[in-house]
Hints:
The complex is a heterodimer.
Chain A: E1 6-7, E2 16-22, H1 26-34, E3 42-47, E4 54-58, E5 61-65, H2 67-70, E6 73-75
Antiparallel strand pairs in A: 1-6, 2-3, 2-6, 3-4, 4-5
Chain B: E1 3-11, H1 17-25, E2 42-48, E3 51-57, H2 69-81, E4 85-91, H3 95-108, E5 112-117, H4 119-124, H5 131-138, E6 142-144, H6 153-164, H7 181-193, H8 204-212, H9 216-221, H10 225-242, H11 246-264, H12 275-285, H13 291-329, H14 339-356, H15 359-375, H16 377-391, H17 396-404, H18 409-414, H19 422-431, H20 438-451, H21 454-481, E7 492-495, H22 503-537, H23 549-569, H24 578-584, H25 595-613, H26 627-642, H27 644-679, H28 681-688, H29 690-693, H30 700-709, H31 715-723, H32 733-743, H33 746-758, H34 763-773, H35 776-804
Helix pairs in contact in B: 3-11, 7-8, 7-10, 13-14, 13-15, 14-22, 14-31, 15-22, 16-17, 19-21, 20-32, 20-33, 21-33, 22-31, 23-27, 25-26, 25-27, 26-27, 28-30, 30-31, 33-35, 34-35
Amino acid sequence: MSEALKNLATVESGHQVELVRVNSGHAMQSRLASMGLVPGTMFKVVRNDHRGPFIIGLKGARVVLGRGMADRIEVR
Amino acid sequence: MGRIIKAALAGNPNSGKTTIFNNLTGARHHVANYPGVTVSTEEGDFTFGDTEFVLTDLPGTYSLAAYSPEERIARDFIIREKPDVVLNVVDATNIERNLYLTTQLMELGVPLVLVFNMSDMAQEHGAAIDIARLSTLLRVPVVETVGHKRRGMDEICRAAIDVVEGRREGCGVPLHYGHDIDPAIASIESEIGADKTFVPEVSARWMAVKLLENDACVREKITRTPVLELADRQRAHLAQLLGDRPETVIASRRYGFISGACTESLLPASVEARHIQSDKIDAVLTHPFWGLPIFLALMYVVFAFTFTLGDYPTGWLESFFGWAGGVIGGFWPEGSDSLLRSLLVDGIIGGVGGVISFLPNILLLFLAIAFLEDSGYMSRAAFIMDHLMHKIGLHGQSFIPMLIGFGCSVPAILATRTLDSRRDRITTIMIIPLMSCGARLTVYALIIPAFFPVHWQGPVLWLIYFTGILLAVGSAWVLRHTLLKGESVPMVMELPPYRIPTLLSVAVHTWERSWEYLKKAGTVILSISIVLWAMTAFPRKPGEAGAFAAEEAAAQDLYNQGIRDLAHQMDLPADFDLGSLLQDLPDDEFAIQDPGLAHFVSMLKQKRAIERRYAHHPVRGELHDDPVLLEKELLLTRLRSADPATCRLVAQYEEKVFGPRDQALRKIERRRHAEGLSYSMIGRLGHALDPVWRPMGFDWRIGTALIGAFAAKEVFVAQMGIIFASGGADGNADALRGQLRAAYSPLVGLCILLFTLISSPCLATVAATRKETESWGWAVFQMAWLTVLAYAVTVAVFQIGRLLGWGI
Lengths: 76, 808
């Protein structure tokens, strides 16, 4: 795992990453938090088709993230 | 004895909460696969031992942050109703994420019972849960259950009673947010407490936490500015100190607490194994390339299933209402002018029957949707559609309500509650009526077979649905670039593991939505049918004796002439009243003195009996292909050969004397009826709006039915039935189709379809839009926008079609 921050959109399927920061508004952050996405969370990118939404696996659930969302999530 | 416990069920979507609710209360209620299906709180009661429970099923939520309507409903219920105990259902295979809601319930200070559902599955996947340890750590009772096997239900009740009676702790441990945040909470708490007159709804500490989280609902409740100023200062201070927003850090600390508790009680925080199968299925069903074609094919199967299978029971229901109309109408003498008969047969049976006839199609469509929802495929459909939906400024989740919209717009509009952004919600609500709903299908089912040959019927139906989708896409794009401009909010949605839907849950699900439809038929449509019938019946045209007198007299003269010829051919005395005899047709023809005449009467009756017996057999194709018609022909031939001479006289009477007068009188009756309708309230309205209908190729009759369709789309069918009832079309769709075919061109048929598809949604939809957007403005806008669009499209199609000479 590299230490450099990267955009979630660039992470290929099957990689495990740690959430560092979400660059979005209050409501969105709260929504992500309720789904378990808070800084420090480890999760897996299950699907990144480089088009359309993502599927990630975290805390035992599969969650779909819109591509626009993934652009604002920084991971390492 | 006689103790009542007020309890509430809370939990994440997909935690099996609704199954537990059904198990405990035995209530009819459905399992929701994604938030939004269980939109309002459901209540049920049951007794356990000598304790009575009143249980409320709260909407499934991931949190109590009050960002979505569900979260607000759940939180407000707990704060305002103050239940004695909250049963928090936790998916045992997904503990870490599910406990996030639990931490928020603990903060609220309500007595809790944790219900670890699907514990069998957790054990299967190798999760060893140290329940006792976790219970001690959190200071709340933990009960293990298996919802679908009804295991653990008594334990839930016992734990709840223990908590309420104070035998067990249920309020949980106080959460600490760390040495940086806790002092900030304490300072705000004491500032809130400084105002002795202010009584916080929950606790000052809870309000302090929420203020740090910048919760808008709690901020509104604080009236003193020093508190808000302090909260803002503390937020700024913490943001600087922690390098992130306080609410994000608070959420992280909650998860920290959860993972701490999980580690200490040796729980695997999550069970990844349950996704192995689902991931394999997803590799195919959500394939980047094949996902969309598979989805479209599935939709095709759903619609084919709905229509091919639904046609049989629909036919039976149609025959039933036709028969019922005949039986009830038969209580009155033929040609009776009774208002009650007209109300019952034309108004109620014709109106409500027409709508209920289409219930099978709707039932099947809801069944298919329920199956797809419960299996978990619906969220995948949202995933697949997200990319396309983004192009029109919406996201995949908007697609689920739109899909439900093919069944009925009202549940579809309610399902938009899953959408976080108000802009997305309103855009979706605005375009949902363009998803052609089940009620409109009743109109298509009437019109399409009337005007289009069999091999064109499928494509025309498809074209109509497709036009709706196309217009919805266009409308969404326009709205997102004008009135509802702004960045689209990205989607966040859980994908539940696939599961085989249980028969019960699919059945309950289907029934609940179909019941809504039936209720609509029984209430809204029944009353509208009566109102429309009254508008059709009143004011009654004053009877003008002389109106058709000349025509009636002419028909009678011809008849008299024919009778005289017959009497002459039969060598009857000049003063013999053959007319009256044939009119009455005595049962006992042997009483007739003249043997030739007696034979004539007998033959006439036999012939009519044969005709009557086969009257309801539809004529399809060639005579010799149809054994029933061959049989009839055989009987008639046998009758003819028995006495050819008399038979010729009978045929002469039927075809040249009795028949023409009968037809002439019927024609007069139809014209009289049409004039009466034209004179009635609805006819006048339809006529008055004639310049409006004309450019679309409609006449006042279609216009009149369209006025009715504003109330509910299905009413169009009922109304056309009433308008054309004079021709004997009550309750019989085929007869009505025949009359429509005679009156209008296929181009007009297509225009009816288009106008029905696009124009203003039904009253129930308007009401739902108003309620969900919390604004009359949007409801009126939706109505006006769609009607203008419908008018523009229909006029364009009719005028262009006419110029090009299509189907006229």
